[in-house]
What we know:
Blueprint: H1 2-16, E1 23-27, E2 32-41, E3 44-49, E4 53-58, E5 62-75, E6 80-87, E7 94-98, E8 101-105, E9 110-115, H2 121-137, E10 140-152, E11 158-170, E12 174-187, E13 190-205, E14 210-221, E15 226-241, E16 246-261, E17 266-282, E18 286-296, E19 304-315, E20 321-332, E21 342-355
Antiparallel strand pairs: 1-2, 1-5, 2-3, 3-4, 5-6, 5-9, 6-7, 7-8, 10-11, 10-21, 11-12, 12-13, 13-14, 14-15, 15-16, 16-17, 17-18, 18-19, 19-20, 20-21
Amino acid sequence: MNIRLSVIAGLLTFVVVPVSLADAVYTVDGSKLVGRIEQMYKGKMTIDTKVAGKLVIDMSQIVAIEADQSITVEFESGNRLVGTIVVSPDQESATMHTALGDLPVEAKNMVSAWPEGKESPVLAEVKAEAEKVRLASIPKWTATLEGGGSRTDGNTDTLEGRGRLDVVRKTSEDLLNFYLAGKYSESDKLRISNEYYGGIKYENNITDRRFWYARIELEFDEFEDLDLRTTAAAGGGYYWMKDVPQTLKTLVGFGLRNESYNNGQTTSSAVIDFVVDYRQDLDDWAQFTHITRYSPDFQDTGDYRLDFDTALVFPLKKEEWKLKLGMRNEYNSRPQPGLERLDNTFYANIVMSLISGK
Length: 358
């Protein structure tokens, strides 16, 4: 009786315990890789092995495929079969067990393969690309606030402050930038600089590299005797380099510049709008930026404004804080009487990220 019970228990154990199934890939060098076939697509086979993890093998290196699990196979003819695959002992042939019967198959004629019940690699790729496009179309907002200043007491009392706010909305199709900046300084309680400017810039992609843009900027500078300078421009742009770690774009357009001064003088002129915008990420330790703006009078190119803004940005310990060291050069070929043509500003600002855009 005990013997019978032991036999029955053994049979039940055999039935209940699942058989460990495994697929196999045979390569041209005689190797046999055992695991689970995840997919075959675009000339690559992915198999998950217990010993080496996931391996991706070029199909040109595969002689035969064996599948204990039911897989879907698509052939060069466009036909699909579902079933398991058994390889002959000499690896010279393989047979696929399908609902239509046993059919001979060759690895070289397979275009793609994946486990039954799962998505085909083509469908998975299409969905992933669609999700990538969807995410890229979602507006990403970033906002940064930067500022710096100094104060000295002694033989000369000085006070200096400067700041800038940038708000950017970016998608895969366009870019919108709002900005506001200012600089103020005193020496022995007398103002020696008082300047503010701000504007809006919009870019919209035409192709992957070409885009059109429009911008408007307002500026006040007490020591240029400038009550208000308004510049509105539009034109086209091109990305010469667009991929990280380097981006380089140029913008060329035409615009209208209006200026009103404290002495009551007003001027209005058509201008050429030319901008070079460059950025390079220097690994993880710094970022180099440079912007050149050249704006000559359309009829009299000897009357122009030329601005350079060059900076190095260093990340600080906290991700949302950075240190920005830079230099801004503003050149006016025809300033008001008694004023210099060139104005240089050297700055060290702390930059705080208000909205990261992630």
